[in-house]
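Reply to dn_fold:

You asked what the input looked like. This is it:
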Amino acid sequence: MSDSIGNSSLPSSIPEEKAETKILSVEELNRQIRQLIEGQLSLVWVQGEISNFKAHTSGHYYFSLKDAKSQISAVMFRGHNSRLKFKPTDGLEVIVRGRVTVYEPRGNYQITAEMMEPVGAGALQKAYEQLKDKLKAEGLFDKSRKRPLPTMPRHIAIVTSPTGAAIRDMLNILSRRNKAVRITLVPTIVQGEAAAPKIVEALKLAYQLKDIDAVIVGRGGGSIEDMWCFNDERVARAIVQSPVPVISAVGHEIDFTIADFVADLRAPTPSAAAELVVKNTADLVSKLSSVDRLLYLSVQKFLKNEKQKLHNWSSRLADPKRKLQDLLQRSDELVSRLNSSALRYFVKSRLKVDVTTGRLVRPDQVLTKAKSRVQLLSLKMQTSVQAQVENEKAKLEQTMAVLQSLSPLKVVERGYSMTKIGKKLVKSSDQVKVGDEIKVSLMKGQLTAQVIKIENEQ
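and this is what came back:
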């Protein structure tokens, strides 16, 4: 019985001879595959093109590596990708070092990347190009936002290493060119992993200095790794936020960094930056002397020209007394013409008044004439109204005579009568029948009768 019970618990589709074989769950199968793959393949190097790249909010990178015929999933956790000098993107050809593993929940095998390097260009160069393109697209390299250096700066801040050769060269040049300029050194490290945040802190301290006119930030020459902190995005944005012009002086003339592009001015070397920001006092004195000489000559020439103009104008001026006599004579002439004109005007106006006065009519005559006309018009109106009334009265009498001649009462006065049944006038014997009560209207009075016999004409 125990055998039958044991056999009945197995699916009918499983052969009896394989009933003792161990049946794995999906989880167990994936675990064994993972152990097998990870035991056989340890560290691998793979070259391929990145596709379906996604930077998760957790900080991990998920992507695929593919070539012309195949692809494989890959993941690079935050602890490893934080050391990358560039940002992976779709289509970028890279070499990845990592380990092949199986993601058990989905049964997918993948590469867990520990290091990534662009193909054809170093990671530092790739990061440099990516950041350069990004900041350029934001307009941080535009000439329109570049500010000119102050003509005569009085206070300059230098952000650099206090122990390097660059600061000694800059201080010597600045002291030689203009001893009156105040120099404030804001020390910082300019090399290594911690250099970028330190430079940002030093720049912010420099911006807080009072009466600051310009800032020089930089260092002497070195390898690309040594100067890499000046290609950091944090340093670039700190330079952009400066309230005063910033001169970038990094490395030698052939060295270009991101700081050079965002600064207001790039100096090929730190020494050149010192020469650019401060004018040589000897040159200024010489230039001022030249300007003073030119100003003196210009003033002398101007005074000479003005003196000649004054002489020319004086020669052209007339005797004021003669001019006054001419004006007095002209005044007398205008007074005479004004008197004559006024007299002619008054004579002409008096003539017009006389003519107009002769044409005027006395008001009492106008009133008498108007009254006579009113009386005449009133008489005419009364006569016309009386004639109209008589005429209309005659027409009314004529119309009444015609109406009376047509009245049925006139017919009754001649011996005829009117017969009615109810309110209807009887014109034919067909309108009554024997026994009907009828009313007969005579010239004088009415008769009420009853129809006894009806005789119809044939």
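The first helix runs from residue 2 to 8.
Hope that clears it up.
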